[in-house]
Specification:
- The protein is about 40% helix and about 15% strand.
- It has 15 helices and 16 strands.
- It has helices spanning about 5-15, 30-40, 55-60, 65-80, 125-135, 155-165, 180-190, 205-215, 235-245, 265-275, 335-345, 350-365, 365-390, 415-425, 450-470, and strands at about 80-85, 90, 95-100, 105, 115, 175-180, 200-205, 220-225, 245-250, 280-285, 310-315, 325-330, 405-410, 425, 430, 445.
- The longest helix is centred in the C-terminal third of the chain and has 26 residues, at about 365-390.
- The two termini are about 35 Å apart.
């Protein structure tokens, strides 16, 4: 069944759609069509959904129906809308476009785009030798069916060893290998978050976690992170005690997108509060291997767990390569078995060859991970220097690890900036993608996973675009309509 975006919902997503560059030069219908394309480009408006009827959207936006009719016509002409008389209009992908690795649509021949929407590194040089070594060892598994719902023993042992070395004794029976961290999260939610269950999230948070929870029809409550200090301990603990969510999803290591690192004391208190509230904690450790500047890492959250309330998820995407779809769940052995039984109805098992490649890479962790840290530190410093030089009015906090910087803009212009940046060859993930109901317009996530030269070029283009936004004759976005 096709979902429908009501007029009031689309109006909320559009926000100050008049406040686009060149409003005086373009008619309202063109500005409206451009704003809807922008929602599609940054992923907040999915493909294949039915848009509100023209009259309904016109009433919600308080414009004439003629304006909406003309905007829909322009969207059909550009390939972003498909209509059928009497049935409605659906969002579509323009011809000659594809869905990029960031999940956003992009022209297939768009080779000059600097993609800051995807926070992932290119593959390390050790990947090819690791793949060759894995292929040599594949023969050991060819006599079997190849289905290992919890993962091959070699990889589970390697992952368990990594937790033990971090101070959390772990056996292979407590590990289940998945097809990436997102897959791990999805399986955990299927088991532990019934449809409609209350769930607590940080704000901002990882957009794909929001998508997974929305698919489960979860009732989402948020804990707002301070841009300077991170988690407010009293507010977070009170949120657990008062809302008593079924589940809480947290990213304590270099939180995505803010880069904050949760201190050890708060980790212990969160686990205790979760136990008292009857809340299970899902701890995303995607960035745990990427401290920069010699940052000392606190113990894993699960170290403080005495009642099997903590489920940890992680994977190979950030320190190694996103194209290697290997993740894992660390939990109690009985819970791992329940997840494995659930998984059989989803995808059976992860590819054996990919798992063997992961084993080879983990054996080289002492070589690969320090190189990644040095690379990220250099690229982060280049990005910070460029921002301070070109956009000194933006507020930035230098993260001590991870791969992203969360910049506070000089006004609630994140979506408008993202749409305008696309025109000069820079793809951004605007702040509202990381929150609920279109908030966070004063922020943008900037990953430092690209080469320093690309980051510096991107910042120069963004500075020019930001200047052009200020030259618009009716700068409605400078009114503080949305503050976070």
């Amino acid at each position: 069944m096709t979902s429908t975006v009501r007029g009031s919902q689309l109006a909320r997503l559009l926000g100050h759609w008049h406040a686009l560059p060149g409003r005086r030069r373009n008619p309202d219908y063109a500005a409206l069509a451009g704003a809807i394309r922008g929602l599609l480009a940054d992923g907040r408006l999915p493909l294949g959904v039915r848009l509100a009827a023209e009259r309904e959207l016109a009433d919600a936006l308080k414009v004439s129906r003629t304006t909406v009719t003309a905007a829909y016509r322009e969207l059909r002409e550009s390939g972003h809308l498909t209509s059928r008389r009497g049935a409605g209009s659906w969002t579509t992908l323009p011809g000659g476009h594809k869905v990029a690795s960031s999940g956003l649509w992009t022209p297939q021949d768009d080779l000059d785009m600097i993609d800051l929407g995807c926070a992932a590194l290119a593959a390390p040089p050790e990947l090819m030798p690791a793949a060759a070594a894995a292929a040599q060892g594949l023969h050991r598994y060819l006599s079997g069916a190849g289905y290992h719902p919890t993962g091959i023993i070699e990889l589970r042992e390697a992952v368990a060893r990594g937790y033990t070395e971090r101070g959390l004794p772990t056996s292979p029976d407590q590990i289940m290998v998945t097809s990436g961290t997102q897959h791990a999260l999805d399986l955990v939610l299927r088991l532990m978050a019934p449809p409609g269950a209350p769930v607590l999230l940080e704000s901002p948070t990882y957009p794909n976690a929001l998508a997974a929870l929305s698919a489960r029809r979860a009732r989402i409550a948020t804990h707002g992170l301070d841009t300077g200090e991170g988690w407010d301990a009293d507010l977070l603990l009170d949120g657990l005690r008062q809302t008593r969510p079924r589940l809480a999803y947290l990213i304590p290591e270099f939180q995505n997108p803010t880069g904050h690192l949760m201190p050890a004391g708060l980790r212990e208190r969160v686990v205790a509060a979760a136990h008292a509230a009857g809340t299970d904690l899902v701890i995303d450790e995607s960035f745990v291997d990427l401290p920069l500047d010699g940052t000392e890492m606190p113990p894993p959250v699960a170290c403080y767990d005495r009642h099997s309330r903590v489920v940890s998820i992680g994977g190979m995407s950030k320190p190694y390569w996103g194209g290697l779809r290997i993740g894992w769940v660390r939990a109690s052995a009985p819970l791992v078995q329940r997840l494995a039984a659930l998984r059989v109805g989803v995808d059976m098992a992860s590819p054996v060859l990919d798992q063997l490649v992961a084993v080879q890479l983990l054996e080289l962790a002492d070589v690969i991970v320090p190189q990644r840290r040095r690379q990220l530190a250099e690229q982060r410093d280049a990005l910070v220097a460029a921002l301070r030089r070109e956009l000194p009015e933006w507020g930035i906090r230098v993260p001590s690890g991870g791969v992203t910087l969360w910049a506070e803009l000089d006004g609630p212009v994140s979506s408008a900036l993202s749409r305008a940046a696309e025109e000069v060859g820079v793809r951004l993930a605007p702040g509202p993608r990381f929150g609920v109901d279109g908030t966070l317009e004063r922020f943008v996530r900037l990953p430092f996973t690209l080469p320093a030269s690309d980051l510096e070029d991107a910042v120069k283009r963004l500075a020019a675009v930001r200047y052009d936004l200020d030259r618009t004759r009716r700068p409605q976005w400078r009114e503080p309509a949305i503050l976070t």
